[in-house]
Amino acid sequence: MLFALLTRLLADQKGLVAAVIVLQLVQTAGILLLPTINAAIIDDGIVAGNTAEIFRLGTDMALVAAVQAAAAVAAGYLGAVVAMTLGQQLRAEIFTKIQTLSSQEVGGFGTQSLVTRATNDTQQIQSFAVLVFTMLVAAPVMAAGGVYLAWQQDTVLSSIVIIIMPVLLVIMYLIVRRLVPLYRQGQDLLDGAGGILREQIIGANVIRSFVRQGHETRRFERANTALTGNNLQSSLLVAGMLPLIMIVVNLSSVAVVWFGGHRAFSGEMKIGALTAFIAYIMQILIAIMMAMYVLTTAPRAAACAERLQEVLSTQPSVHDDDGGAPDGSGARGVSAGLDTGSVTFTDVRFAYPGAERPVLDSISFTATPGSTVAIVGSTGSGKSTLLSLLPRFLDATAGTITIAGQNIRSVPLDVLRQGMAVVPQRSYLFAGSIAANLRIAAPEASDGQLWDALETAQAAGFVGRLPQGLETDVGQGGTNLSGGQRQRICIARALVRRAPIYLFDDSFSALDFATESRLRDSLADALAGAVVIVVAERISTVAGADRIVVLDDGRLVAQGTHRDLLETSTTYREIAESQLALDGMP
């Protein structure tokens, strides 16, 4: 999985990868050649007393060292460039993929898990790629070349190297095999700890208000202890690998010096050759250490690659219909139809995969241009889910939804959503100025258009009193504004986009009755020709709607005007009575 992912990501960088490999081979060849030259200097120069040979071989050694150093610097630089580009591409792919996932898939992965995968997991892959280009390419060549050149220096001593190599490989294999499941589990534990920390930061005031700091501390401590225990196990395995390898290599080095010394003393081996042989033993050790370091990070990178591939291979449940118009002609037709078309739900059903019963079933109604359709029902009756089906945040599992007579599944998602302005249930604002938040709906909108939208949304007054007006900074989520202020800015954001369809998902709940009344009046004028669908809890919010759709346990039980429903719908009347709204209603 890991190398398949790397191979795919590196497909567009074949030239740079080839250059890195060539430079690494040049660097390794230089490293391997230096002990042989050094042996010749000792045997043919120093021992023989040949100064000219010492100078000539010393010059050759200097040139080889210079080439090796230049190749190492160039390989390191290009390897870093390739790895950073790979990381950038992977982060972009994950981000783009997440944007295509429906709320259903995002909920399945979990927000914190997706954040961890896009940041920490991607960083692990990038770091592994750096090690591959700086160490893994050179390590096997250096080890194999060291063994061969050591054998060239002395065949008898080379048997020691041939014996220790399988022993070292077995040690590394056994430890790396144990590391893979530990690292996989560790990334899941990291998700859990991060999720708890995120909840505690976001819900800090709730925790304090109920004096649950001790409980939350213990909850985080359990997750933190599990993560620490996992990291400790993997760290102990990695730490144990080094002494084991050092014991084997040091014993082999002692054997080389012992037997090599006897062979040199007996004249069977030259001093320079023994020196070169010891140098090659050290190079083999370095190669093994490099390979070990890379291989100990590979299991974590492999676990991260599996998690990333899980996201990348997920097929979004909501996507453009392949049967649509690939040439864009269908999109143009629907875009034009959105300006004047009615919205029709016909026997619409929605159920989550594996659920025992549907969230919505047999929903049918029509919203015409210039009219307001309100959706009411008890908590959990499926109101917000129903609204989410129109912009295809979720896809209906049965039935059809049409705009101007055309099934919305045949409309490209971008075109469909560009024809709508949505005010979500959660009034979310992004970090930046108020103007920047409003221009999310229409990037080219002028300041005058922004003020017009704020005026309609009953937000111009408090925005005008802010020291910097439209340029006032908003914290992430709009935490420096009240709930009612956030709602009104979100409504203004939707109004900045002049769309044929407006969707309000319980968007007036944080407003006082007087502000809500003024807002409804101003919206009636501003949205006179549009299709307006409103989800609301308050009967006062929906009483003036042209059509009210009543949901109960996911089914449409009644529809009509406020007065009609008071007389004909028990469910609607119970909702109205529960709000003590009957006496004051027209």
Task: Please tell me about this protein's structure.
The structure is a single chain. By secondary structure, this protein is of the alpha/beta class. The chain is 65% helix and 10% strand. It contains 21 helices and twelve strands. Strand 11 and strand 12 (555-560) form a beta hairpin. The model is unreliable at 322-337 and 581-585 (pLDDT under 50).
Number of helices: 21
Q: What would you call the structural class? A: alpha/beta
Order of the strands making up the biggest sheet = 6-9-10-3-11-12
Overall outline: elongated
| Rg value | 35 Å
User: Looking at this structure, what is the CATH superfamily of the domain at 2-197 and 230-312?
Assistant: ABC transporter type 1, transmembrane domain
What separation lies between the terminal Cα atoms?
Answer: 66 Å
Name its key features:
alpha/beta, 21 helices, 586 residues, disordered C terminus, Rossmann fold, four-stranded antiparallel β-sheet, ABC transporter transmembrane region fold, 12 strands, six-stranded mixed β-sheet, single chain
Secondary structure elements and their pairing?
Elements: H1 2-9, H2 14-46, H3 51-100, H4 103-109, H5 111-136, H6 138-153, H7 155-202, H8 204-209, H9 213-265, H10 271-312, H11 329-338, E1 343-350, E2 360-367, E3 372-377, H12 383-389, E4 398-403, E5 406-407, H13 413-418, E6 420-423, E7 432-433, H14 434-438, H15 447-456, H16 460-465, E8 473-474, H17 483-496, E9 501-505, H18 513-526, E10 531-535, H19 539-542, E11 547-552, E12 555-560, H20 562-568, H21 570-578
Parallel strand pairs: 3-10, 3-11, 6-9, 9-10
Antiparallel strand pairs: 1-2, 1-4, 4-5, 7-8, 11-12
